[in-house]
Amino acid sequence: MFEYKTELLQTGLKLWFRDNANEEDLAQLDALIMQKEAEGWEFVTYSFMANSFASRSFFAVTFRRAK
Fold it and tell me: CA-based angle 40:30:8, to the nearest 5?
């Protein structure tokens, strides 16, 4: 049996006509994955949650570890 943990990672400020991740956003995502791996969490999946009505979007990142 596993326990799961999902974290939201906010992206950098976006322009209204361009909503995608940049190199800094991806570096932050990599850092979060490495940090959680060091804490014993296994990376499971992520989803990029674009927000066309605001200036920021999010990565939803899910980890798991044995109970």
Answer: 80
Q: What does pTM read for this prediction?
A: 0.76
Residues 6+ apart with CB under 8 A from 53: none
Looking at residue 18, what DSSP letter applies? B
**Paired strand residues for 59:** 9, 48
Q: What is the pLDDT of residues 10-67, one digit of tens each?
A: 877 665 555 566 788 889 889 999 999 999 999 999 898 877 666 677 889 999 999 9
- CB atoms under 10 Å from CB of 35, counted, come to 10
